[in-house]
Amino acid sequence: MTQLAPTRRVRSRRRARRTWLNLLGLLVALITLFPIFYMVSTSLKPPAEIETLTPHLLPSHPTLANYRAVLNGSAAGIPYWTFLKNSLFVTITAVAASSLIALLAAIAVARFRFRFRTTYLIMLLIVQMLPQQALVIALFLDYRSWGLLDSLIGLFFVYMAFALPVTIWMLRNFVAAVPREMEEAAAMDGAGPYTVFWRVLLPLVAPGLIATSVFAFIFAYNEFVFALTFLLTDEAKYTLPLFVQYFYSRNGADWGAIMASSTLFTLPVMVFFLIVRRRLASGLVAGAVKG
Amino acid sequence: MVRTIAGRPGGASAPAGRPQHTAPGLRLRAAVFIRRHHLAPYVLLVPSILAVGIMVVYPAVQIGVHSFQNYGLQQVTGVQPISWVGLRNYSLILHDPEFWLSLRLSLIFAAVVVPLTLVTGTLVGLLLNRLGRKMSAFVSTAAMLAWATPAVTASVIFYWLANPDGGVVDWTLTKLPHWLGGGAHWAQYSWTNSALPAYTLLTVLLVWQSFPFIAVSVLAGLKTIPAELHESARVDGAGPWRAYWRVTYPLLKPIYLVLLLLSVIWDFGVFTQVYIIIGPGNLDEYNLGMYEYERAFTMPPSYSIASALAFVLTLILLIITVGYVRSSIRQGAIK
What we know:
The N and C termini of chain A lie far apart (57 Å). Chain A is mostly helical and 291 residues long. Chain A has helices spanning 4-43, 47-50, 65-72, 80-111, 117-128, 132-146, 152-177, 180-188, 193-222, 225-230, 240-250, 255-275, 277-281. Chain A is flat. Chain A has two domains: 4-65, no CATH class; 69-281, MetI-like (MetI-like fold, Orthogonal Bundle). In chain A, helix 4 (80-111) crosses helix 9. The longest helix of chain A is centred in the first third of the chain and has 40 residues, at 4-43. Chain A is 75% helix and 0% strand. In chain A, 45% of the residues are buried. Chain B has helices at residues 3-6, 13-17, 23-36, 40-66, 73-76, 88-94, 97-130, 133-148, 151-161, 168-175, 195-223, 227-235, 240-268, 272-277, 288-297, 303-330. In chain B, 72% of the residues lie in helices and 0% in strands. Chain B has 335 residues and is an all-alpha fold. The radius of gyration of chain B is 26 Å and the shape is flat. Chain B has a single domain (88-330), classed as Orthogonal Bundle (MetI-like fold). Chain B is built from 16 helices and no strands. Classes of the chains: A mainly alpha (291), B mainly alpha (335). Chains A and B meet through helix 1, helix 4, helix 5, helix 6 and helix 7 of A and helix 4, helix 7, helix 8, helix 9 and helix 11 of B.
């Protein structure tokens, strides 16, 4: 009996501590989720519940009217689908091109030892940190003379190039993880370099390629500074982030529609983030993704 | 899709069509040449070097060049030729009070946000490490969603939260008891009218957006520390505070250095959030990036002065980047 008492006390103390920790965790999660929750909640409110000085957390008469207005274009003049199409076009082409170019570079860096290899890797790290709002000045002047302003092709080139450093940096680990013996075995069986690439290396690197593509996708889909500067007067060419900002700066009062368009813009990124969360947790520190 | 690149003028597709007839000899000779001189890695690097060179490095050089010229509206429209002006743009910005104000705002902002982010991220990382599996997954998913929120969306949401007309922040502050600083004077308080409240809002926004990255990195670091180390510290009678500074921190120090430098680079150079929350037109609330951008893109544009400002911004960030690269190398990032 005398020996049991302290164990029970220790156990209950431990349980109390666990409860406190769980409560703390719950609090952190709720605070963190609040802005996102409030975005969705506002997007479901009718105007009367938004234009009030006593806001409620949940809409008392939830409505999809804001979404309808954004989707059919009655809120912004142009339907949401136009901007989604622009964003998807630029993003998908840029991700495909940069993945291909990055794969070539990753093979070079992971499979060969050559002069300037370290220099190349260091340059990748540095280039990634150059401020985009500085580079955009020179690029704007170049694009002006090249006739690439107000064009999605122009945005494609920037997104492709700016997604490269992170993509190469991450892909090289995936290429290095493919055992060299498999390529050598294929070569012994008479496969040329092209067959080795298509039949051996590419299938094995594919999961890594998908993971890095998601990062490139998130970067290009969210990008704001270049879109803001290069897409000037032609609203039909706007990408989604620019649409949200433009809509917000013009219709400063229509918060229901602004939050509905933000929700529609943000949901795909969140889904993608949850897909790659495992990769996010491991060894991101070097060659990190811009937040 | 990839064809867009290959189809570019001067790209690979045009010349590749012709040698097909004479191909065997030529292609073979090229292959032999590449193999004999060990050129394969360089050939593989060419596309990436071209893309990054043209779109990233060349503009960076151009900014340096423009900052010694008089590039303005008349030069861009061709009314007057571009001429060299030496260091005039730099002496202009050094005597420009707006430049010093924006630089000071950028410095103070980074000095406040970086420690706040690191401390918040560390505390959440330590918490995640001690929670049960389910709770930990729940909290880290919540943090992940904050991290995933695009800068544009996050800024618009926070602007709405702090809106004087119906924003939830002002409403909450009016309901708070007096001893917590609440009261009726918060009714319809504007957060974007002057620099201090605007940057307070930006601080909360940036900490909210960037603490998850720190938490996840710290958690990943904590998982590499053997549990026995903490146990022996506890046996020796160390409380959580001492255990952290004596055991955890020294082991995570290299990770912290990289996180610190990355945070400084991001928070000093923050643009999108400042552009949306503060908006064009509020000159006395600009940070360095915003001031530089607005000098280039509001009428009348002065690309040269903006380039000089951009060059200063880039130079400051490059100095921090050198530290980041060095600590990354020491961490074994380049293998």
